[in-house]
Amino acid sequence: MFLSLTERVQKILKDQYDLDDVSVHWQRPQESSHGDSATAVALQIAKKAGKKPQEIAQVLVDALQKLETVERCEVAGPGYVNVWLTTSALIAELSKTREACTPRVKRKDEAPVIVEYSGPNIAKPLGIHHVMSTVIGQAIANLYDYQGYNVVKVNYIGDWGTQFGKLFVAFRTWATKPVEECDIEDLLDMYVRFHEEAEKDSTLEDEARAAFALLEKGDDEMSTFRLAAVDISMKALLKMYERLGVTIEHQHGESLYEDLMKPVLDIGKEKGVFTEGKEGALIAEFPEDSHMPPAIVLKGDGATIYHTRDLAAIRYRTDRWHPQAVYHVVDVAQELYFKQLIAMGNMLWDDLPTWEHIIFGRMRFVDKNMSTRKGNMLRLEHVLDEAVERAKKIIDEHGESIQTDNKEDLAEMMGVGSVAYGTLSQNRRMDMIFDWDKMLSFDGNSAPYLQYTHARAKSVLRKGGEFTEPTDITNFAGKERQLLNTLLQFERILEEARATHMPHTLCNYLFALCQDYNAFYNDTPILKAEEPQRSLRLSLTSLTTTVLKVGAEILTLRVPDRM
Predict the structure, then answer these.
(1) Are both 410 and 546 inside the same structural domain?
(2) Which pTM does this prediction carry?
(3) How many helices (H) and strands (E) does the chain have?
(4) Are strands 295-298 and 325-331 parallel, antiparallel or unpaired?
(5) Residue 355 in 3-state DSSP?
């Protein structure tokens, strides 16, 4: 339908003003009294057409008014065109929303998209700050996956570095059992103890560096120790990912690229991208107008650094998957680092795909007691447990108004969902504000509100029984039109959230849909309505549950059928 409107507008612009291939965008007006859809195309092309926007808008209105699908239209403000569609046209358009609720078929021959996210270090449990890269990255990957892209999900794990030397020294000095018998708690205890003791005895740092040097040389004892620590950490990590609804197929540690760095350094020296800097280090310098300082790729003592491994990773991923794009979901503190990395990659090779750093802000807490303290990392697991306990209390406080067959499962769904949704619902470019009250609210833009609305609509459908899709509706009552128009936005919102890598766009939409459905529910009789309105209202209710469920799952949430 909107395609036919667009084609009519484009034809008029061609015939009247000799303008070809004008991009016409339709948006839902903020106020329902301003129509079902609106376009500002008259304002956008007025200068090229040499006419006043309102004059162009009136020409468009006169042409669109003749379409069978248009009930009426008008010029608004400085040159907007507001359109009201016929009842039958709006109902027919719902088929596109239903189609959008089914994942698109994979385009098998298309180059994949790589999304790298989470990126924790081995030997430590996930901290609360890890939730940002983890769920933002998963949501972005899900958006691509849902829309038919071939998606490669990569977790770039810190499984190489001096932490293994520190951990080895700690076990050798204080452990009461071998590393193979330990869990992630034991690894964390040893790691924390090393740093506490190293403040009193600086020689421990020298021992750790020596231990790591042995690992780099392939020492059997150190290699066995490292593999055991990695295995313990991965088991704990995958358990946490399962709880969060996170799926990352490729768990690639830094160690994967150890043997791939020398060819990168060689080609860099050959092309003059890497030159000798101070104290024999290898550096890359950038054009003056880039405002970037030189980047070190090899220290003077021959030690490699993050940039070295990441450049090897760029080459590895390009050669293995031949992707159309690679997206790193990493916080804003690494902005300069990734600018340098991407610039170096493009100086080294001319076959790289789109390479982008998807930035997100830092985490701040309304409750100051949640701030991370030295030696006392705020763990994601503990935050999720706390969220679940708070959800249980909320369920108890609501008494019989919350219906559930499994209180424990519902609390887990609400608690974990509240942390994930609370992260995703905020603009990722801004600092995230962690606020328990907002995250667990039944009224605001929160997981429990979305979950409750889904359960409410499901309850209506259970009571309503079978119904057929209405075909003979002649008018809308009350909040029906508002809800229908919101449902019609789903396909566009999915595309916008994916294209901009902004999951909060989908969150805001689902919140608006919940608000519109609840207003519809409270204002409009559903089960007691006469036909064909009863079937229409049950149909809108059914489609609302489907959109909420699909949207929630893209955002890693589960939604209950009863609540």
Answers:
(1) yes
(2) 0.92
(3) 20, 13
(4) unpaired
(5) strand
Q: What gap in Å lies between CA 554 and CA 168, rounded to an integer?
A: 41
Last residue of a domain, one of 85, 120, 145: 85
Q: What are the residue ranges of helices labelled H in 425-561?
A: 436-439, 447-464, 480-487, 490-500, 503-523, 533-554
Q: Which of left, alpha, beta for 465 (phi over 0: left; psi -120 to 50: alpha)?
A: left
User: Are 385 and 534 found together in one domain?
Assistant: yes
Of the candidates 494, 377, 539, 542, the one whose C-alpha atom is nearest the C-alpha of residue 139 is 494
Residue 241's CB: how many other CB atoms inside 10 A? 18
Query: What is the total count of domains within the chain?
Result: 3
Rounded CA-CA distance 508/71 in Å is 29
Same domain, 71 and 148: no
Q: Answer yes or no: do 394 and 513 share one domain.
A: yes
Domain for residue 487, yes or no?
Answer: yes
Q: Contact at 8 Å (CB) between 82 and 74? A: yes
Q: Are residues 525 and 385 in the same domain?
A: yes
Q: What is the DSSP letter of 66?
A: T
Whether the Cβ atoms of residue 169 and residue 210 lie closer than 8 Å to each other: no
pLDDT digit string, tens, across residues 248-298: 999 999 999 989 999 999 999 999 999 999 888 999 999 999 999 999 999
φ and ψ at residue 252, rounded to 5 degrees: -105, 115
DSSP character at residue 75 = E
Dihedral sign, Cα of residue 143, residue 145, residue 146, residue 148: positive
The angle at the Cα of 60, spanning 59 to 64, to the nearest 5 degrees, equals 125
pLDDT in tens, 528-560: 999 999 999 999 999 999 999 999 999 999 999
Range of the domain at 161: 137-247
Helix 407-424 to helix 503-523 angle (10° resolution) is 120
For residue 349 the two structure tokens come to 């090779």
Listed residues 85, 109, 126: the one ending a domain: 85
